[in-house]
Amino acid sequence: MKTRQLVLEDGTTFIGNAIGSEEESFGEVVFNTGMTGYQEIISDPSYCGQIVTLTYPMIGNYGINREDFESIDPSINGLVVREACSTPSNFRSQESLDTFLKAKNIPGISGIDTRKLTKVLRKHGTMKGMFTAVDRSVEEVVAELQERPLRKDQVSMVSTIKPYVVPGRGERIVLVDYGMKHGILRELTKRNCHITVVPYHTSAEEILHLNPDGVMLSNGPGDPKDVQEAIEMLKGIIGKIPLFGICLGHQLFALACGANTSKMKFGHRGSNHPVKDHATGRVYMTSQNHGYAVDETSLQSTPLISTQYALNDGSVEGLRHKEYDAFSVQYHPESAPGPEDSNNLFDEFLNMIQTNIRREREACRSVQI
């Protein structure tokens, strides 16, 4: 097999076997601790522009199949694994990991010590990295990495270009696509919702004109402060329509209400993160993928309250508006991959919508009387 090297911006270098595309690639190097779900991870738009390290020692053993994609075209910039299985064993499998990466023009590396790489990222934080040929000077690559900035327009790269409808007979939901996972659509369609998916830059006026029963804010990549259009839109709809935000949507909801967000050292990426509910004391196992978090101290001067927190580091995992029908979570209740402990949040959102509809009808009747 051909070899290639992965060089981090601090000069740490790993040499291994090349898989996938043969092109050089640049991005932020992150790690995911999930034991399964590599296909969903690779196709999650929230990883746009990143080089993803999978900590489980063998990846690709159940192949690639048509049912488990979270987007049509993966947007990761690279994949790092300890061992890439070339002979998957699974009745659903249609191709190997390597052939899929080649087809999608995604470079990868196998045969390196992913445990060491993960420990480096945990100690020093996520870093820029690059896949290059082994004969290229490490000093030259490091100099390029230190000068080359990470992109800030990831959301525009993965959001839908035009609105589209997924028809249903139930509640009418506007789903704002910041890099939406298909799992969100699956959960809403399973509940017979009529869904209108709109681009990230859709204005408050355009959303209100659609007259939805509720608005859902999807997950997505990058720094929430780079998506100013979304923050302005949210300021125009909070209090007017029931709202539910997931991951990046959760962070944008916080910013629109006056809270602050900050970059985490190495983020939360995996399918086994415990989250505790303040009110009930119940602990949920959750799927997570985010590099930014809401600053808890910044909530004091806002109309938001923290509803849930991460047991591993105490970071904010849930928010609720004190006055209006609006809430959000930092994790992924649609799972894919991961546990389904918090799947009921979609039902909670629809119950909120139905309560709001009844309230509006009663208000109309009282005015007529």
UniProtKB/TrEMBL annotation:
Active site: C247 (nucleophile), H332, E334
Pathway(s) this gene product operates in, as recorded in its UniProt entry: Pyrimidine metabolism; UMP biosynthesis via de novo pathway; (S)-dihydroorotate from bicarbonate: step 1/3; Amino-acid biosynthesis; L-arginine biosynthesis; carbamoyl phosphate from bicarbonate: step 1/1
Catalytically driven reaction(s): hydrogencarbonate + L-glutamine + 2 ATP + H2O = carbamoyl phosphate + L-glutamate + 2 ADP + phosphate + 2 H(+); L-glutamine + H2O = L-glutamate + NH4(+)
Ranges where the Carbamoyl-phosphate synthase small subunit N-terminal domain occurs: 2-132
Region of interest: CPSase: 1-171
Enzyme Commission number(s): 6.3.5.5
Residue positions binding L-glutamine: S46, G220, G222, L248, Q251, N289, G291, Y292
Pfam families registered for this protein in UniProt: CPSase_sm_chain (PF00988), GATase (PF00117)
Keywords: Amino-acid biosynthesis, Arginine biosynthesis, ATP-binding, Glutamine amidotransferase, Ligase, Nucleotide-binding, Pyrimidine biosynthesis
Record GO terms (molecular function): ATP binding; carbamoyl-phosphate synthase (glutamine-hydrolyzing) activity; glutaminase activity
PROSITE patterns: GATASE_TYPE_1
Membrane found in the keyword field: no
GO biological process: 'de novo' pyrimidine nucleobase biosynthetic process; 'de novo' UMP biosynthetic process; glutamine metabolic process; L-arginine biosynthetic process
Presence of keyword Amino-acid biosynthesis: yes
Top EC class, one word: ligase
HAMAP family in UniProt: CPSase_S_chain
Annotated family: Belongs to the CarA family.
Role this protein plays: Small subunit of the glutamine-dependent carbamoyl phosphate synthetase (CPSase). CPSase catalyzes the formation of carbamoyl phosphate from the ammonia moiety of glutamine, carbonate, and phosphate donated by ATP, constituting the first step of 2 biosynthetic pathways, one leading to arginine and/or urea and the other to pyrimidine nucleotides. The small subunit (glutamine amidotransferase) binds and cleaves glutamine to supply the large subunit with the substrate ammonia.
Known partners and oligomeric status: Composed of two chains; the small (or glutamine) chain promotes the hydrolysis of glutamine to ammonia, which is used by the large (or ammonia) chain to synthesize carbamoyl phosphate. Tetramer of heterodimers (alpha,beta)4.
Protein name: Carbamoyl phosphate synthase small chain
Organism phylogeny: Bacteria, Bacillati, Bacillota, Bacilli, Bacillales
